[in-house]
Amino acid sequence: MNRISIRSLALTVISFVMLLPLGNALGQTPEDEFAITLPSARTELREAPSERELQAPTQVVVLGTGTPIPDAFRAGSSIAVIHKGESYLFDAGAGAVRNAAIARYKYDIPSLYPSLICCVFFTHLHSDHTMDFSELAHTMWWRRNAGLRAWGPEGIERMANGLLEMNSVDVDLRTGGLQPVQNPDGFRVAARTIESGILLEKDDLVIEAFVVDHGDIHPAYGFKVTTDDLSLVISGDTAYSEAIVEKAQGVDLLFHEVISQQGLLQNSPGFQRYHNSAHTTSEELARLANIARPGLLVLYHGLFYGTEEELVLDEISAIYDGEVILAEDLDVFPQR
User: Fold this and answer.
1) Is residue 160 part of a domain?
2) Which CATH number characterizes residue 219's domain?
3) How would DSSP label each residue in 204-231?
4) How large is the average pLDDT for residues 245-265?
5) How many other C-beta atoms are found inside a 10 Å radius of the C-beta of residue 162?
6) DSSP letter string over 230-242?
């Protein structure tokens, strides 16, 4: 289904939902399969994950597939890995937190409630990957069991301190007034500058960072996540990377950025030079996937520049014979 068809479908669904109150007023009852209920403005607290969460298989929810270019259908770059009742975010582009709230109820994942998200890992500190950092850290901070933990390249601590300064007036108002504050330190962000290697080990969860080539942005990182039932690599922004070829060998899921080969040609010579140094074209990604052979190649953070989005799938499939899909916001993996 192309993007035009998807948008037409979305408008049809919106129109249907808007007509539901009229149908109810006329005594008509919509069929259950057409009814989707997402709670609004619900406060959630949790001391620890439930047994059901602890026993659930590892899931990946794509919270944002977009780029710096504003897109009504794609939030900024963000991927959530949910394992044993905790949600680990990789990047937090604009709109990611709102999509986390939607996914919490759409898929019944309690740890995606924004103030219950424990951790975020940044591939690099470009704004389209960090715009929701403040929202993630400070939404309902006074109800957080603990402040957000953040890992990222050099500059992450400066950014976290800047967010604390920006929100200091809010903290003073809430802690100095009549509002009950469950956790006076919930606004604090524990930020850590990373290097290549294992960043976090918890039970059977391992999160590893490795350097990728994002042009003149040094360093930029990709991440490999391994659990007892799933392995995945997240590229972040990168040109063709031998590190990804190595880390993604045989993983279940490879989430990789992409720029359409034909879309690239729509750019000025200056931007073509920039993109070739900082991003991975569809042809280059196909070559990479042919070597790494992931179980599923998932395209996100795609730059299309006026071409039909599905064209990038054709460009890759012309060279790569493995399974590949173009992710949409709120897609869930593995696809069970």
Assistant:
1) yes
2) 3.60.15.10
3) TEEEEEEEEEETTEEEEEEEEEE-SS-E
4) 94
5) 12
6) -EEEE--S-SS-H
Provide the token pair at 145: 């069991």
Tally of domains in the chain: 1
- pTM assigned to the model: 0.89
- Domain-located, residue 36: no
pLDDT in tens, 92-144: 999 999 999 999 999 999 999 999 999 999 999 999 999 999 999 999 999 99
Q: From CA 160, how far away is CA 1, in angstroms rounded?
A: 41
The region of weakest confidence among 130-134, 151-155, 176-180, 270-274 is: 270-274
48 assigned to some structural domain: no
Strand order in the sheet with 197-202: 197-202, 205-214, 217-226, 231-234, 253-259, 296-303, 324-326
- Torsion-angle region of residue 108: left (phi > 0), alpha (psi -120 to 50) or beta? left
Sign of CA dihedral 166, 172, 175, 179: negative
Q: Where are the alpha helices (DSSP H) in the chain?
A: 3-25, 51-55, 96-106, 133-138, 156-166, 168-175, 242-247, 261-264, 269-278, 282-292, 311-317
Q: Is residue 52 part of a domain?
A: no
Segments forming the whole domain that contains residue 147: 59-333
Q: Give the C-alpha separation, 45 to 127, whole Å.
A: 30
